[in-house]
């Protein structure tokens, strides 16, 4: 398959990397800077699992995601890779920051179940495109889109490494006045539940813009769901409003001239 663009540019924003570098050892502190990402697992893991299971009528009890190759892009310390591995998926977590991968690898070693199911690699998405064309059944990019340098390139790379009819899950932050006040002023500067400087409002992504980018890259958007964080309880819930955080599920088109996909977990996609 031909590449859609040259990789002379990059999705990696070095300013963003410097911020994450400072906290690379803090990923698994459940009460620390990444506590909101820990608790986000309570809704994002079931969202990914149930969406995939609803697209399939063939799954293994106890290991419902077994047989699926998942790419966790911007995996950080592996907070999402690990639970997906425990659900039976074969997970590749990539992150441009070597220290994040070191933390992820070290934490993975505490659970022998993950040894064969989860692999990490220090890499950007564009660096693995060549070797991973149409390799993955599923891509997750959770809380990453708002940190990349070039979102269009990022989505196109996702398209290239995803199998036809594969699923892409993105969670990110909308660009609204409310997300500025709650996501930056209150969350970062006043109550400090997110490390100060983590987010730049200019990089937040309106859902219509993301949807447009996805559709113009050959994806069909299946769901866009609002997410709400309650700082008093430290918990997340689904909400109709997408004015702050939201999650997207999109499916890559079947591709020209291809007949029905044989992967059991995407067979029934509508
Ligand atoms: C807020 S963290 C989310 C980590 C993880 N996805 C989670 O939800 O627990 C954002 C992560 O994206 C990574 N990142 C930033 N830019 C990236 C890019 N262009 N490609 C891949 N990962 C990137 C950062 O290094 C960081 O680990």
UniProtKB/TrEMBL annotation:
Gene Ontology molecular function, alphabetical: 3-demethylubiquinol 3-O-methyltransferase activity; metal ion binding; polyprenyldihydroxybenzoate methyltransferase activity
BP GO terms, sorted: methylation
Major place of residence: mitochondrion
List of residues binding Mg(2+): 143, 146-147
Catalyzed reactions: a 3,4-dihydroxy-5-(all-trans-polyprenyl)benzoate + S-adenosyl-L-methionine = a 4-hydroxy-3-methoxy-5-(all-trans-polyprenyl)benzoate + S-adenosyl-L-homocysteine + H(+); a 3-demethylubiquinol + S-adenosyl-L-methionine = a ubiquinol + S-adenosyl-L-homocysteine + H(+); a 3-demethylubiquinone + S-adenosyl-L-methionine = a ubiquinone + S-adenosyl-L-homocysteine
Keyword flag Membrane: yes
Residues where S-adenosyl-L-methionine binds: 44, 74, 95, 142
GO cellular component, one term: extrinsic component of mitochondrial inner membrane
UniProt KW keywords: Magnesium, Membrane, Metal-binding, Methyltransferase, Mitochondrion, Mitochondrion inner membrane, S-adenosyl-L-methionine, Transferase, Ubiquinone biosynthesis
Membrane topology value: Peripheral membrane protein
EC number: 2.1.1.64, 2.1.1.-, 2.1.1.114
Record localization: Mitochondrion inner membrane
The protein's required cofactors: Mg(2+)
Metabolic or biological pathway, per its Swiss-Prot or TrEMBL entry: Cofactor biosynthesis; ubiquinone biosynthesis
PANTHER family: METHYLTRANSFERASE, UBIQUINONE BIOSYNTHESIS O-METHYLTRANSFERASE, MITOCHONDRIAL
Subunit text: Component of a multi-subunit COQ enzyme complex, composed of at least COQ3, COQ4, COQ5, COQ6, COQ7 and COQ9.
Function: O-methyltransferase required for two non-consecutive steps during ubiquinone biosynthesis. Catalyzes the 2 O-methylation of 3,4-dihydroxy-5-(all-trans-polyprenyl)benzoic acid into 4-hydroxy-3-methoxy-5-(all-trans-polyprenyl)benzoic acid. Also catalyzes the last step of ubiquinone biosynthesis by mediating methylation of 3-demethylubiquinone into ubiquinone. Also able to mediate the methylation of 3-demethylubiquinol into ubiquinol.
Protein family: Belongs to the class I-like SAM-binding methyltransferase superfamily. UbiG/COQ3 family.
UniProt-recorded name of the protein: Ubiquinone biosynthesis O-methyltransferase, mitochondrial
Upper classification of the organism: Eukaryota, Metazoa, Chordata, Craniata, Vertebrata
Gene that encodes it: COQ3
